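TICKET #2291
ISSUE: user wants both folds in one file
ATTACHMENT 1:
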Amino acid sequence: MTTNLTRAQARSRSELLSVELYTVDLDLSAATDPDAETFASTTIVDLDAVRDGETFIDLIADSVSSVTINNEPLNPRTAFDGARVHFPVTAGANRLEITAACLYSRSGEGLHRYFDPADDKVYLYTQYEPTDARRVFANFDQPDLKARFQFTVTAPKDFSVLSNSPVASVSAPAQGLLRHEFAVTGVQSSYITCVTAGHYATATDTYTHPQTGQTIELGVHTRASLAEHMDAESIFTVTKQGLDFFHEHFDYPYPWGKYDQIFVPEYNLGAMENPGLVTFTDSLIFRDKVTRASYEARANVILHEMAHMWFGDLVTMAWWDDLWLKESFADYMGGLALAEATEFDDGWVTFALQRKGWAYRQDQYPTTHPIVADIPDVEAAKLNFDGITYAKGASVLKQLVAYVGQDAFMEGTRQYFRAHEFGTATLTDFLTALEAAAPDRDLAAWADAWLKTTGVSELSLEIETDDEGTITAAEVVQQNSGTGTSGAGEAGAEVVRPHRLQLAGFVRKGSVLTRTQTWEIDFDSARAEVPGLVGVARPDLLLLNYGDDDFVKVRLDDTSTQTALRHVSRFADPMDRALVWSALTNAMRDGLLPVTDFLTAYSRSLSRETHAGISATLMRTMLTALDEWLPERFVDPALDGLLGVSFDALAASKPGSDEQLALARTLLSLVLRSAKVHTSTPPVRAGRELAQAMLAVEAGSDMRPDFPGLTIDHALRWHALTALATLGWADVCDIDEALVVDQTGSGRLHALTAEAARPLPIAKQRAFTAATSDESLSNDVISARIAGFTVSSGLPITEPFVEEYFRLLEGFWERSIEIARRLVNELYPSWSIRPDEVLAMTDAWLESHADAPAAQRRLLIELRDDLARSIRLRAAGGDGKH
């Protein structure tokens, strides 16, 4: 039995078959019974074959009870191998019928079932990309075999049941049950079909197109225990703004009838673009106070998925090689809609610092791949949802728009939709449409340079000045950053790409850095003169890629670096700050800027940065630098100093502001890390006392008189309790008391993390054993236990589990790929106090498991690269050199 569908097998099926209609009947009558592990699934497939032959349909099920082809029964025992049902076809029309018992999922793949501990209510939803529809019903689980789908779902009568299309009829087959028959869908791929069922709460609205009068019924749904926090009005506002924007830019009516958005528990992704029924993680329903950055992120996800209704759903990639195109396009268009159609008109700022940061990191791993990747099978596709596919692709599309012009880009997109509606297409089809709209640009050469190579373009300036500081010569230099742990400028240095970007000069004027001039640069060589700079007085800071149209790592020159380190918060425009922070972050990560210099600059900015997206990203970068890159001898004084300036900034912050909340979270994260500090200084003691004070405040109350305006909600209380548990200052009784106050699903997960965070061998043993051995645990429960296990990294009590990790590593891949991914990534012993030995054990495992699944090896290679980088940077001297 194999569950790994190859591209060759998919191509063979699509050459043999076309599919007209799936009629799917799911019986979820017993969904409320925790002991019911399976549900009945019956599929009728109407298909056409071009010739007589043998083929198979995809199905992962507990058992198959019936298989019939053209009214001829087949023996299920011989036809079904656990992942496929094999059957013959005759030339012309065929009808296949399969009845199976499929398994409810606890991994977020297939039909996931969740029992809410807040009220014991039940929730089910499907998640299929790339090929998990086969876990729910028999189908040809590949994107190019599009068809129409007609779903019928039998469920308890108090369930809300949804699918891609509206309900056509409802009947009562038995007492306490309702049978929901949905209208036939439009033509779509199997991986974007969707069914949800359970005690979901609902809000509704209607969108009307201002010019055409087209109406779209809107719905927002979430579990009952989150209903009061649904914030449907805000979600509907963004939804309507997005529909206005995409109708205007795509000039193609929304093609899927209704538009439901459902927020579901224990979701593996941020969201999924199922037409007419978009699924989101319900962490986007904000039970506790969040900053503007979280609302911006939610709006961005909503708009990303909406862009897919056209690019991805209406026109679908023929195979997963072009996964990047649909995701990158949605990422770019979601960002554009965010900035141009919503209140978040500075949305590109977070993209520049956060999304591109992900891409820069991913593109320097040894496992990096061209944007146009070779995807030989669906297992490779599963692991290709990465920073190249999403963030680098979107960044490169942003450069493409600058290269051809936005009007041409949009016109090419509109032609692409019209030419391939309800069908599948390839990158070549998209580029052909763009070339027709932008005939003056060589897009084939552009695609070869940007889409078929690896590595990050790295740009720097070489400047010569006279004795008065006037620039006498200036060149921009392009090289391609290498991959792996060796730093920049090695592998792939011969790759030269075309760039269209801006250069800006800034000078200090009073307390701000003011832009004095900009220069357009359009070049496709390794070096290019910048004649506009000659004769100009040398600015205090020169910033390449001003405005962030390009995907490049910018190397600041020495003068600009020193200005940035001292004055990065003095830029009035948050985009300028984001780009300079990005340059400093990359320099630190590549070993070209001492970690201590970065942390000093961060400390200076702490009370000055007002952009929530920049603040959130910098906090994560600071914690990574502290945990992974800072030489050991600097950790104690750095943590001490960071706690001190964080306290000062919190005390000075505006009551009730985003800055106040972000600083409180930063402080608690630093308190947690004080478990590794060898002395108890006043800032460390004050931090621990703050955590205790937060825990003493009743949930929902203001932390007066010390920090008026700071509401101590459930999230902050759990954060404080986990920090105290890590320090050994809270025990099981404290955790149980907190759980009494917060008996929600998120409360249970926080409690599991806090329990595992305690610095006790028995706590670590229980968490590790449960995560690795208890196959009844859900995806999020496993991650919660691992988070607590690893949170007190660098302590001797976790050392016995280093060898255990490598002993179990091979067996992890026998679990579902999502659970396996979490175990491999989240348990990797970067937390060990013996990093060099872990590195050696990783190398030994890779060498002795050359035939391990490529996806598993890829994860481990990337983890190894992060660890090697950590070892190298920690060993660096005070000047940041190796």
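ATTACHMENT 2:
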Amino acid sequence: MQNADCIVIEGSNMAECHPVGFQWVMEAKARGAKVIHVDPRFTRTSALADVHVPLRAGTDIAFLGGIINYVLRHEKYFREYLVAYSNAPVILREDFRDTEDLAGVFSGLDTDNRSYDNASWQYEGTEVQAASGERDQEYEVRTGGGSSVTEAARGEAHGAGGAAIGEGEPERDETLTHPRCVFQVLGRHYARYTPELVEQVCGVPQDLFRQVCELITENSGRDRTTAFAYAVGWTQHTVGVQYIRAASVLQTLLGNIGRPGGGILALRGHASIQGSTDIPTLFNLLPGYIPMPHAHENEDLDAFVEGEASRKGYWGNMRAYLVSLLKAYFGDAASAGNDYCFDYLPRLTGSHSTYETTMAQLDGVCKGYFLIGENPAVGNANSKLMRLGMANLDWLVVRDFSLIESATWWKDGPEIETGELRTEDIGTEVFFLPAAAHTEKDGSFTNTQRLLQWHHKAVEPPGEARSDLWFTYHLGRLVRERLAGSGDEMDQPVLDLTWDYPTTGRHAEPDAEAVLAEINGYDAEGTALSSYEELKDDGSTSCGCWIYCGVRAGGVNQAARRKPGEEQDWVAAEWGWAWPANRRILYNRASADPQGRPWSERKALVWWDPEKGEWTGHDVPDFKKDKSPDHVPPEDATGPEALGGTDAFVMQADGKAWLYVPSGLTDGPLPAHYEPQDSPFPNLLYDQQRNPVRQLLPPHPDNRYQPSGDEPGAQVFPYVATTYRLTEHHTAGGMSRWQPYLAELQPEFFCEVSPELAAERGLEHTGWATIVSARGVIEARVLVTDRVAPLTVQGRRLHQVGLPYHWGPNGYSTGDAANELLHMSLDPNTHIQETKAFAVDIRPGRRPRGPAALELVRAYRTRAGIDEHTGTEP
């Protein structure tokens, strides 16, 4: 980021929520970079930006689409980069229809099943398969198998990287003039995203919008780069994936991917959130973004790889990644004769995300639950349903530093006060086990920039507190001891696990470096591997996560390196270790032109050295080292060998950045603006109000949706609310509300409102406000501030309400949970909740207590005409 000429921070309050990373924004600014902050609120980030752009929460695609339209209309795109490295020249099929043709939806929409058939989205001349992780659903088609995945699994989709291309080559027009080439389709799609429309939809004045367009385009091209940074302000929407897609389209048009000071940074809200997705806490992935198999009959390892791996690009090596993972899991028990224990892996029967798990609890299907570093009783959308679900369990294990709300809801939760739950009627057996803090254990953090950094234990955990590694290892050990000698086939996968980590100290703490060594992997002689390029598909290598292979190259913990910056160059390759291969910028082949020369000396990163016949430069090249820029692969080549010398995007099966996505997303090949699930405004762009394939969970009386736009009753909830984080507290509060100093700095839950809204609704500064949705009612202290400025949207004044989401009733600093107000309507790709844009009413005074609180919510539902069908249309 320090090398950027312009930085756009949107969907994040980076200065407060990611302050360590924000130092590099300030470094770039000191070097002359322009900083733009796009956010409904004026925050500490805004105060340090050159330009603050207030906009209506939930309208970022309209805003970004307007910039895309500006780039195309004014020919500000980086044409040579675009033609060489993107799918802009590729021609689409004749039967593809865009939102402009179909009143806001794409061709292939199945309204009954709330899904798209993407056959018409394909390229002319070939078929592009789904992204890795989704192709397993097409197992029968691709492998000729005879069994069908369950209907539930057929609706489950997730991308894990690249996409496979069928036989033949897609038709291309490098003049970019063919009416059905991606470039022309893109231009038509965004033609109506004008400055005038951006002003009407987002509330951003046209002059301010044009200033942003000029700053971004002036600071992009051969000699300059612009970076984007986002956080959960972009992801937590029913179209969250398409927010990031819109930024990807823009950055590809401008040639800002794979280059110093460019790219799109997903800012992570905790030290190792990146690590928890790499070695996943996600239900649908195996380590290194290998997809979890679906529940097919008679699917062996070869059939899975055939159905999943792409023909071209690095996902073509999936078998080597997966076999090495299975060897790490099962060791000598995994052999060619038993398919390397592939049958031991669990199988998906659909989406098993957090919110489906809650519904399974309510339905009595899910009987037990582990909460490790999570506090859903206040931290998840529609917190009430989280608690009701946990009240229907047989057992619940909570591991945390403090007695968080998810450990005590059975005796002091809101439903006890309202009478909806009675402690004596709750059958859930709750186990609270104190957890060690990161200072009390060894391990690694993987941060925003994919950088692994090792931390060493500073002190022993107090009392009975133990690390998560200790808990997991010893729980597994005890289960294996209980199952020892079992002849039950179902127990064999657990018994065959390699579960032999060395332990130290009086508590028998597992050696964290031994786990890192297993993750890194070994060859057949037990030597630590140095690169994922060394992984084999014949069982001779083991690797717990292929993208981390090399973190112990030479048997040395590379993540523990701390060479000072003044002793190395600006890439700082000896500070920690970045996956993959210690590469600091992904797709950096795109930092050079098609001939392998840097686009400019100022932005040089890697380049082709014709004398040595290899790629060289400041960073580790993201390309085969000896593959020349003019390399043309043989027609029968597969995997990485099938990539040509200008196929810079090596994880994509065609080696190109995708402006248009023919497969891999469930909700459309191009980002399109839809209103949030609950919105007080109609969609000005299309007849289609909401994302037609957003994920709605089965109807529940405590998860009612609200009318939106022009629907009767929508103005019962006339204000837009958004949740956010503060510097002084952390996520759901478990790490901060029990700290006296932090509780003193932010002692109570509050809401931010403008002076104009305060006057309109009779709210007094530091007084109380009651905030109501169709799901719940909360109270908050009132903070009257100019930081949340009113906007003019569609000709009327809009007020927005800011709600930090850290609070709950436990700890030193207490208050209602903002997430009580939220619905469970999810992004269909990631199953993430829409917390960043929803509609509420706000009124002065404290909320009612007990059953009276339920009556108030019911009264609002009645006024708005809400029933189980409201807001559920495709």
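RESOLUTION: both attachments delivered.
EXTRA DETAIL ON ATTACHMENT 2: The chain is about 25% helix and 15% strand.
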